[in-house]
């Protein structure tokens, strides 16, 4: 048992060493320079060691993405949670943009690797965190559409605007672009705090508020299938109002 523990610790230490070496290559040479041979040389190991520990290059990239996103997610977890979840979400948007501009190589690794039907493990973590924040907006009745659609809208817009700014030569960058896109997106997904109680947007908000409240209820007299059906119906009501805009 003790030997197994030592072996596990040694393996984890070696994995960490290789990930840090890959991070060094990424930060200095970019994604184009991130070859297995370069990482092995930087880590002082043979390439087969990387394959043994990570399976393939994609496995190493997943671990590297987790490493790169770790600081961002820690910063996101420290954002204040106020009684205005829409404002909290705005701060999260600004943090996302800041991360992309400060760490463009990691951002491209996590969000910019286009593979049909696939998002990196680190990217999935970030989207999951985003959805949790959007559920808070739903819970106060201010969401104009379903949680899933709002998550998709913010994710697509955020990645799009950050990628656009990153790919623009520094001397030509217009940071006002990120602010304008943010305002367009937030006007599309969330109602103002003072919205009319009977407005269509409020109807969507009420549907999502009910969904959020039911998700917190542990003793609903519904089967799993009935819960899924109810969620689908509430989503359809919320997205119907969004489609009318």
Essential attributes:
245 residues, mainly alpha, 74% helix, globular, disordered N terminus
Give a verbal description of the structure.
Helices cover 74% and strands 0% of the residues. With 245 residues, it is an all-alpha fold. The radius of gyration is 22 Å and the shape is globular. The termini are far apart.
Write a compact overview of the structure shown.
The chain is an all-alpha fold and 245 residues long. It is built from eleven helices and no strands. The protein is 74% helix and 0% strand.
Radius of gyration, in angstroms, nearest whole number: 22 Å
Overall shape: it is globular
> Sheet bearing the most strands, described?
none
Number of strands: 0
Average pLDDT rating? 84
Overall SS class: mainly alpha
- The portion of residues assigned to helices is over 70%
Q: Distance between termini?
A: 63 Å
Please provide the ordered H/E string of secondary-structure elements: HHHHHHHHHHH
| Oligomer designation | single chain
Topology summary:
Elements lengths: L1 H28 L6 H8 L3 H8 L2 H21 L7 H18 L1 H8 L9 H19 L7 H20 L9 H14 L10 H17 L7 H20 L2
């Amino acid at each position: 048992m003790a030997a197994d523990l030592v072996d596990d610790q040694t393996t984890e230490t070696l994995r960490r060493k290789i990930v840090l070496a890959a991070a060094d290559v990424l930060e200095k040479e970019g994604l184009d320079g991130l070859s297995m041979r370069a990482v092995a040389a930087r880590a002082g190991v043979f390439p087969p060691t990387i394959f043994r520990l990570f399976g393939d290059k994609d496995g190493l990239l997943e671990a590297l993405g987790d490493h790169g996103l770790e600081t961002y997610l820690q910063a996101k977890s420290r954002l204040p949670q106020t009684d205005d979840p829409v404002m909290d979400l705005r701060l999260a948007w600004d943090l996302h943009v800041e991360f992309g501009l400060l760490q463009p190589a990691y951002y491209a690794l996590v969000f910019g690797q286009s593979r049909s039907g696939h998002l990196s493990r680190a990217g999935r973590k970030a989207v999951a965190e985003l959805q949790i924040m959007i559920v808070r907006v739903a819970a106060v009745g201010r969401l104009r559409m379903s949680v899933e659609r709002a998550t998709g809208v913010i994710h697509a817009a955020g990645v799009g605007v950050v990628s656009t700014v990153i790919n623009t030569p520094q001397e030509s960058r217009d940071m006002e672009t990120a602010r304008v896109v943010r305002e367009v997106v937030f006007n599309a997904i969330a109602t103002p705090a003072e919205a009319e109680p009977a407005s269509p947007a409020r109807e969507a908000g009420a549907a999502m508020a009910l969904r959020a409240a039911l998700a917190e209820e542990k003793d609903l007299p519904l089967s799993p299938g009935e819960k899924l059906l109810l969620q689908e119906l509430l989503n359809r009501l919320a997205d119907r109002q969004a489609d009318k805009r």
